[in-house]
Amino acid sequence: MKNRITHILKTKYIEYIILSILILIGFAARLYKITNPIADWHSFRQADTASVSRIYIVDGINLFIPKYHDISRVQSGLFNPHGYRFVEFPIYNALHAFVAKNFTFLSFEVWGRLTSVFYTLTTSFVIFLIGRKLYGKWLGVISSACYLLLPYNIYFTRVILPEPLAILFAVTALWFFLLYQDDQKYKYLLLSSILLSLGILVKPYVVFFGLPLAYYFFNKYGLKRSLINKHVLISIIIVVLPFMLWRVWEQKFPEGIPFWTWTFNGDGIRFKPAFWKWIFGDRLGFLILGVWGVIPFTFGILSLRKKDNFLISLLLGMFLYVSIIATANVRHDYYQTLLIPVVSLVLAKGLLEMWKLDYGNNIVRKLSILFFVFLSMITSAFQIREFYKINHPEIIEAGNAVDRLTPKDAIVIANYNGDTAFLYQTKRRGWPVVELPINELIDEGAQYYVSVNYDEQTKKFMEQFQIVVKTDKYVILKLI
């Protein structure tokens, strides 16, 4: 039996055969509840992203003036009558809109999820290439398997968010930089810089993936020589300039720029006990690694040596990311998606180190490793399964009613405590909360009010305004 397995593993291109199977499994896993409406975990952030794509389908793609349905003051503190949405550069939204508009045999939301899945499957292949180049084909295969099959990553790479595309740009940039390190061909550095720049435009936090590049040039040339090296300077300009131009441009639309300084340390949590508990205990240890995965992950870290400077610098970059963007990482678990490529490489390294240990009974040790992996997957999946649930289906029903009963250009108040997931379901521009006295909102253009909560405010409005429809789940009022 052992000889047969050894013979199979020595088959030519066996790593590609296994990788293909893993990618198919990863794809199948992400089809679970792929038709879910945008009302599952982190639906508010998905709704904002999908909203930009939906408006692109209706009004055409304009990369430089992205808009969404929310015209309230919630995000920026300023009235936003045009619905400007200046967060990430909308490459993800443009691609989503293009596919959904031209291939209508699937729904808009399904296409959004599938584009994220496609970026993720491609990323898994690039992670395989990186792992293989650094440590051999089997680490490449295992790191790709980790990226594809960690339950946390299965969920967060089939959502309508820009992170999967940003991560694809980031890891592909790293791959081309590794090629540049090998043969010093400038074209690889150029490609790496362009891809890193695109990643930063899509998600600015991708800049932390640039630490291996910075370390390499600093180690090779020193700081002063790096800053006068023509190739290094051009690379820096390519990486930084597009993002800076985007930031300068968006200042023309202050009402469309959400509050962002809070993400760093808005609540002062950085390096406090709660920071370590949330990031390394609850998120990395429990949610991502499922407790038992901490064992091989620790082995992976302890196995690192000076020659592993590429992976060490990546780990340092990820630590800087969660430390600098501290408040956002503590408050929102989807922020840790950027960690997963590096976690996958370290986890794979640890698993291989444990597998090769010459200690104790060989069979017992290897069975224990497989059992650790099983327990890790089960523990993580048990938590992640809750993310797929639609806890408030009434917002979908009410949103469909608004879409059916009101004009397409109607401006609505979808009162949901500032959460835009409800407003998104209406397919209308408007407010996700009653942020001003109702008469002032009417003066600013509000025409309909919809609520899934019969609170005192809604009951008062029902006495003041015409009821379009009322059910036990929602009410729609005409305000003018």
UniProtKB/TrEMBL annotation:
Query: How would you describe this protein's topology in the membrane?
Result: Multi-pass membrane protein
Q: Which UniProt keywords apply?
A: Cell membrane, Glycosyltransferase, Membrane, Transferase, Transmembrane, Transmembrane helix
Under Gene Ontology molecular function, one entry of this record is: pentosyltransferase activity
Pfam families on file: PMT_2
According to its record, what are the GO cellular component terms? plasma membrane
Subcellular location(s): the record lists:
Cell membrane
Q: Does the keyword Transmembrane apply?
A: yes
Taxonomy of the source species:
Bacteria, Candidatus Woeseibacteriota
Stored PANTHER family: MANNOSYLTRANSFERASE YKCB-RELATED (PTHR33908), MEMBRANE PROTEIN (PTHR33908:SF11)
Transmembrane parts of this sequence: 12-32, 110-131, 161-181, 188-211, 231-249, 284-304, 310-330, 337-355, 367-384
Its name, as the record gives it, is Glycosyltransferase RgtA/B/C/D-like domain-containing protein
